[in-house]
Amino acid sequence: MDIKGNFSDFSELSSIGLTRGSVARIENGRGTVLRVETGSVWVTQDGSRKDVLLQAGESFRIERDGATVLSALGPRFALVSFEPSIPATPTRAASRR
Fold first, then answer.
1. Is 91 exposed, middle or buried (0-12, 13-18, 19+ CB in 10 A)?
2. Quick check: 59 and 33 in contact, CB under 8 A?
3. 84 preceded by cis ω (within 30°)?
4. In 1-97, where do the E strands start and end?
5. What is the rounded distance in angstroms from the CA atom of residue 18 to the CA atom of residue 47?
6. 27 with 38: CB under 8 angstroms?
7. In what order do the strands lie in the sheet with 59-61?
8. What are the pLDDT tens digits along the chain (97 aa)?
9. What separation, in Å, do the N-terminal and C-terminal C-alpha atoms of the chain show?
10. This model's pTM is above 0.85
11. Backbone phi, psi, residue 74, to 5°
């Protein structure tokens, strides 16, 4: 079965899944609301002295531009949704076909 035709070209993300120990980086996401749907996530913003720990059902608005790093914690998978959606840049591996 050829699945190439089933791929979509995504330019924005509305959610991301993270496994324990994995990280995601958001650039210049000021104003974006992060909502943890499942699991728990550690949030660090560039230039901020305070980090935030979010549990399932909790949300946080990114307060500044620069890098915001999300890290999944605990033994479970974490699902984080974004409002509004954030621009997505494909990784080198994802852009190969």
1. exposed
2. yes
3. yes
4. 12-18, 23-27, 33-38, 40-45, 52-55, 59-61, 67-73, 78-87
5. 24
6. no
7. 12-18, 78-87, 33-38, 59-61
8. 334 444 444 457 788 899 988 889 999 999 999 999 999 999 999 999 999 999 999 999 999 999 999 999 987 889 999 998 777 665 554 444 4
9. 16
10. no
11. 80, 180
| Residue entry with tokens 């992060």 | 34
Alpha-carbon distances, residue 68 vs 4, 49, 73 (angstroms): 32, 13, 16
pLDDT of residue 5: 41
The SS3 call for residue 95 is helix
CB contact set of 35 (below 8 Å; sequence gap of 6+): 58, 59, 80, 81, 82, 83
Spatial neighbors of 93 by CB under 8 A, at least 6 apart, are none
